[in-house]
Amino acid sequence: MNTKTKLLYVGFRALSTCCLYAAFLMITSCGDNVVNPDSP
Q1: pLDDT attached to residue 14
Q2: pLDDT score, position 3
Q3: pLDDT at 38 exceeding the cut of 70
Q4: Are 31 and 37 in contact (CB under 8 A)?
Q5: For residues 5-30, b (16+ Cβ closer than 10 Å) or e, as one string?
Q6: How far apart, in Å, are the Cα atoms of 31 and each of 5, 12, 18, 38?
Q7: What is the pTM for the complete model shown?
Q8: TM segments (predicted)?
Q9: How is residue 38 annotated by DSSP?
């Protein structure tokens, strides 16, 4: 595996992890809003 491919792979992994994390945060915050609408 050459350097360019490795960087691309690492970048893709980081991006997908970030997207999953953001989606998880959005889902949990939406769940909190449903359970407790008074909280900001």
Answers
A1: 96
A2: 93
A3: no
A4: no
A5: eeeeeeeeeeeeeeeeeeeeeeeeee
A6: 39, 28, 20, 13
A7: 0.55
A8: 7-27
A9: T
